[in-house]
Amino acid sequence: MPKSGDRRARWRHAAQALTATGAAGAFVLTPLPQAFAAPSAGAVVAEVYGGGGNSGATLTRDFIELGNAGATAVDLSGYSVQYLPGSPSATSRWSITRITGSIAPGGRYLIAEAQGAGGTTALPAPDASGSIAMSGTSGTVALVAGTDELSCKTVADCAADERIVDLVGFGTAAVREGSPVAGASNTASVARGASLADTDDNAADLTAGVPTPVNAKGETPGTGGGGEEPGEPGEPGTVRVHDIQGTTRRSPLTGATVTNVPGVVIGVRDSGSRGFWIQDPQADADPRTSEAVFVYTGSAVPAVKTGDSVLVSGKVAEYAPTSTTQSITQISGPKTSVLSSGNPLPAPVVLGPAGLPDAYTPEAGGGSIEDLPLQPAVYALDFLESAEGMRVQVGDARVVGATTEYDEVYVTARPEQNPSVRGGTVYLGYDGQNSGRLKIESLGPAIPEANVGDTLAGATTGPLDYDSYGGYTLMATEMGAHVPGGLEREVTRRQLGKELAIATYNVENLDALDPQEKFDRLAEGVAVNLAAPDVVALEEIQDDNGATDDGTVTSERTLTRFTDAIAAAGGPRYSWRYVAPRDKADGGEPGGNIRQVFLYNEERVAFTDRPGGDADTATEVVATRKGAELSVSPGRIDPASDAWENSRKPLVGEFKFRGERVFVIANHFASKGGDAPMHGRYQEPSRSSEAQRHLQAQEVRDFVAELLAADPKAKVIVLGDINDFQFSRTTEIMTGDGSLLTPLVNTLPEEERYTYVFEGNSQTLDQTLVSPSVVAYDYDIVHLNAEFADQASDHDPQVVRIDVKKGRK
Questions:
Q1: Phi/psi of residue 666, each to 5°?
Q2: pLDDT tens string 147-181
Q3: How many Å apart are CA 104 and CA 74, to the nearest integer?
Q4: Label partner for 413 (CA 20 to 30 A): which of 28, 242, 561, 578?
Q5: What is the per-residue burial (b if ≥16 Cβ within 10 Å, else e) of 217-244?
């Protein structure tokens, strides 16, 4: 499962919301109503006109006008207006314009939409601008309390969507309140009366007539603002891109309208969060100021192409993908004039050791770095920010993060930086970030299916973007040639007869409903790559119907399928032990009832069963004349402790091998979800998730201490998905600062210390730790998943082989 926040939604999709400060003056702001099904006494759609610029029209642009019939101002921040064709098909989608600010009591709010080729009269200066091309005769307009795209296409479905504040259907609109209002045309809008009455019947509330657009200042065409529509073809304005970008991460012109900003289009994104990047070939002398900016067109496909010389007018905005990420400077609500096409593109900024500093980011004591002056010669993130939006290039880039399901691949622009033994980049400490990592996505060329250690030979070039999943991203318009590095999946050696082999493997939400291919690939990993260990501690075994939430907690069908597949792959016939969790009490995928499981080979090792273990019963350490033993086996460590709230409880088992008792503790600590990103606005990033892992580590430490107090020579193996690094405080707590347990990952060379790859960092999340009496061991992390585009799991397993007869005197 993802370890730094679940990737359930892609960054900056079509539901992007631009944030700005609303000018509320002295008004009291009141929330908008929640559903259009209730007649509104506040904000309503007051007028809709889709004939702007059409044949016979006087006005050059479509518009939507909002009104406030209430006695207090209405805050529009974070809201949108959306349009659906009158007869939507299966592929029809709502078009979106985001809005900010507020509507005064009794006031109006004007939203300019698409411009046509006809007409002679400009709208008054709009309060917001979009690019929705509405029909002049039929359609639906919704005022929405949010910015996510609506999905409803029927009256009933839209009535059930509580985000819709008000809705107007005109012409033959399938979606409307009551009956649609008739009479809309190229020369007629549909509008409410002066009272803005709303009875939830469009035909009764609105009538067709001459369009009468009014903005928040009360201006109408001819009374003010009509000549202020930006972006008419002509000479460049006085503002340049570097003026917009400024010398910090936030534009000094945020919220300002800019006119005729010149640039050459260097890349176009025509899906998802649509828009294009422009770069000014006439750079200033300040290395801190980027010469490029993203032009956000919302739902409208950009009407430009790479190489166009353009003038862009619109509003400067800062968009932050999440509350903890850096923001992106952009021009929103644009109007663009194309002056010429086929122009040469600016030379790219080459990313490499000569440009990217060793230091990753400035520190701000946990605060925001967004207003700090950029120091591109000192910090890598400052260097990349100083090139935000610009055409950049990496050459002969080594892949350090395999191609993902989202068509992303990570490379390093600094190949000498902490290389792993197999071609990746090893993450070795909070104070040692790998500054050369860079994500690559595509604006056209195919992303190859690449593994760690492969190379993108030659130049990979495109605009430099930023997102919440991975940070700075090269949006490739040109892709280097994929050269495979020949990476192979590792196979460990088989244990000797005198060695007890114990492995841990996170099998990524395995349940009985998964396809046979997943079982077979994971089984081959156990039988062949891990060489059939005597004991396998599994993480992320789900109940027998996976995410189906019906109270099922058993895993018998899941484990039968898995052990059958292992046997078919040439492995032993494993037995299993586990403690079923209480329904919905252990976190993980909802309905999955995740848990740890022991598989063991009865021909090699014996499991000591002591009955009484269940979801709520804690196993205790019992001191006997022959040493420590467990009160119940298998059992759980203090399942009532707050440390395990909504999280997996450790599974403890007592095994016998060659007459020696061995205690195995299988763990799956709380995930890293909720931590701030390494590349985010707050530095040093907060790691809020580690608080629970610290409590969990203390519980495990205390239990191991009890075992060793009862028998100082006890052989204890603590292993599993710890969800934290070998250098973390979590590990320090669990080891007793070195006195109780030894983390075996630290016995490996630094270039081999990883079990997982995240955002191009090869890092350790899975660990094996041993008590002091375990002195004769051979430890191996078996790399067969994390570095590959084609994975059976996102984790690499590991195995330790122990000579149990050594170490006890």
A1: -95, 130
A2: 888 999 999 999 999 999 999 999 999 999 999 99
A3: 7
A4: 242
A5: eebbbeeebbeebbbeeeeebebbbbbb
**Among 720, 708, 726, 727, residue whose Cα is nearest residue 772:** 708
Tell me: the pLDDT tens digits for 196-222? 999 999 999 999 999 999 999 999 886
Query: What is d(CA 130, CA 114) in angstroms, rounded to the nearest whole number?
Result: 7
pTM of the model: 0.73
**What percent of the chain is predicted at pLDDT more than 90?**
83
* Backbone φ and ψ of 257, nearest 5°: -90, 130
Q: Is the pLDDT of residue 10 over 90?
A: no
- Strand-pairing partners, residue 127, are none
3-state secondary structure of 155: helix
* 629 vs 609: CA distance, rounded Å: 11
DSSP secondary-structure letter at 28? P
Residues with Cβ within 8 Å of residue 697, at least 6 apart in sequence: 669, 730, 731, 733, 734
Side chain identity at 298, as an amino acid letter?
Answer: G
DSSP SS3 for 345: coil
Determine if residue 747 is left, alpha or beta; phi over 0 gives left, psi from -120 to 50 gives alpha, anything else beta.
alpha
Q: Each residue of 757-792: pLDDT tens digit?
A: 999 999 999 999 999 999 999 999 999 999 999 999
Average pLDDT over residues 746-763: 98
Q: What are phi and psi of 794, to 5 degrees?
A: -90, 0
pLDDT 10s digits, 438-473:
999 999 999 999 999 999 999 999 999 999 888 999
State how far the alpha carbon of 242 is from the alpha carbons of 142, 295, 327, 348, 352, in Å: 37, 14, 16, 16, 23
Q: What is the mean pLDDT of residues 711-731?
A: 97
pLDDT in tens, 420-435: 999 999 999 998 899 9
Measure the CA–CA gap between 50 and 139, rounded to whole angstroms: 9
Q: Strand, helix or coil at 16?
A: coil
Helix-helix angle 556-568:516-524, to 10 degrees:
60
User: CA–CA distance from 315 to each of 123, 260, 447 (Å)?
Assistant: 17, 11, 33
- Spatial contact of 67 and 107, defined as CB atoms under 8 Å apart: yes
Closest CA to 665 of 709, 621, 712: 621
The three-class DSSP label of residue 49 is strand
| The token pair that represents 637 in the structure block | 């460590």
